[in-house]
Amino acid sequence: MWREVAAATRPADRPAAEEGVRLAYRLAGLPEPEHIIWAGSPSEGVAVATRLTAEGTAGRTVRDAVRTRPWAAARKRVLDRLGPAGWAAHWALTGAQLWDGTVALTERIRTGVVEASTTAPEDEQAVRLVLLDAVLGQHDAAWLAAFDGQDGAEALDGIAAVARAAGWWWPYERAAVVCERPVELHRDEAGRLDRGDGPALAFPDGFALHAWRGMPIPAEFLAQLGELTPERIREEENAELRRVMLEHYGYERYLEDSGAEPVQRDKAGVLWRIELEGDEPLVMVEVVNSTPEPDGTHRTYWLRVPPSTRTARQGVAWTFGLEEADYVPERET
């Protein structure tokens, strides 16, 4: 359930989220907020929170009482009951399953919010301070999963209710700012933000992040990917963007279209190498699958290997974590 919460892209359940906010305040021993204000994304949430605090209408942040103390108390209870080893095992089966993915995503969102909210480096600190006041809503799913069902977890019911219903939120003495969830979330098999034809993460107010295999890319960069040529790839001065271009274009296709020549052949395959200005060389091994396809053909694969590779056999051995001399397969499948 918490995995679904962390990845949810449905519109927020605003009544449920607002009741969760009020419950979180009550459980913290605080008066309920006088106002609950909605924002379309964490970026807008920062803008609203900044305005309210500047006007003095929201009061001080109460994040410590609403989120930090209940979290610390819940962790202490579980740790006291299970002991360090038991806690580690419990965490491995619960929160750890979601931790890396949600942490990486929240860090990308924070970075994106800072970039969208500032025009000068000296403005960044103020935005980052506002971000520190945020409760992460659905992206608190990892640690909420660890405490779900544990003794004393009722103190987290308000925070958990908001997490199931909405995105990030800011608790202040007299007001709370609550954000919508994203409307789009695209990730690769490794859980990294990844999309080649639009935003990898998008919110209903237009705030969005673009990424390829986890690497941030400019939105306008995507429009070029459908018209790539080997010449355009070679002309790209940014080595990281050039790598994105190569992945999108396809290494095999690039080798063929750029007129690359093989530099070495042996029984393991064919070694190819192309020098790239300002970047490490592109070195790949062309191998043929020894197991035939249903139609009798044999599929060709391309393996990217370190630039120091000098033979196809050495490259194939590297993909298995072996030295060339130790790569002695008895049978290929």
Query: Could you say which overall geometry the principal axes of the C-alpha atoms support?
Result: elongated
How would a textbook summarize the main sheet? 4 strands, antiparallel
Helix content: 40-55%
Number of helices: 12
- Report how far the terminal alpha carbons are from each other: 40 Å
Order of helices and strands: HHEHHHHHHEEEEEEEHHHEEEEH
Helix/strand class: alpha+beta
Report the C-alpha radius of gyration, rounded: 26 Å
Mean pLDDT: 90
The total strand number stands at 12
Q: Which regions are unreliable across 5 or more consecutive residues at pLDDT < 50? A: none
Strand portion: 5-15%
Return the domain count: 2
Order of strands, widest sheet: 9-10-11-12
Please describe the topology of this protein.
Elements: H1 2-7, H2 14-27, E1 35-39, H3 42-55, H4 63-93, H5 96-117, H6 124-132, H7 141-147, H8 157-165, E2 169-171, E3 175-179, E4 184-185, E5 201-202, E6 208-209, E7 211-212, E8 215-216, H9 230-235, H10 239-249, H11 251-257, E9 262-266, E10 269-274, E11 282-288, E12 300-304, H12 312-319
Parallel strand pairs: 1-3
Antiparallel strand pairs: 2-3, 4-5, 5-6, 7-8, 9-10, 10-11, 11-12
Helix pairs in contact: 2-8, 3-5, 5-6, 5-7
